[in-house]
Specification:
Radius of gyration: 20 Å
Helix content: 25-40%
Number of strands: 4
Number of helices: 2
Order of helices and strands: EEHEHE
Number of domains: 3
Distance between the termini: 24 Å
Length: 121
Amino acid sequence: GRVRAMFGDNGQTLKQAGPSTPVELLGLSGTPAAGDELQVAPDERKAREIAQFRQTKARETKMAQQQAAKLDDMFNKMDSATVKTLNVVVKADVHGSAEAVSQGLAKLSTDEVKVSIVSSG
């Protein structure tokens, strides 16, 4: 979407914001995820190209994760007798916290116990 206005945490109108500056944006069609980068485009055509590239990249990443999950499932079936799986549902008030907890739990997997994040949100 197009940013129509940007306000700081004190309500003042801003023209620019640096890293770690909390801002409120008006005009976006959805809520960006934690860590998403906003990019300035010289015209609408270039902005559409960037958005389409990002969507394609996100789709490819999702498909790669699904393929990895399929391979992981296949290996799990082969090793099901030796490896125990701990299914975890992560609930948090903000996406960034859920992401951090999920990554931390994923690092706890060992040869004997595999931590599987069933749902995160």
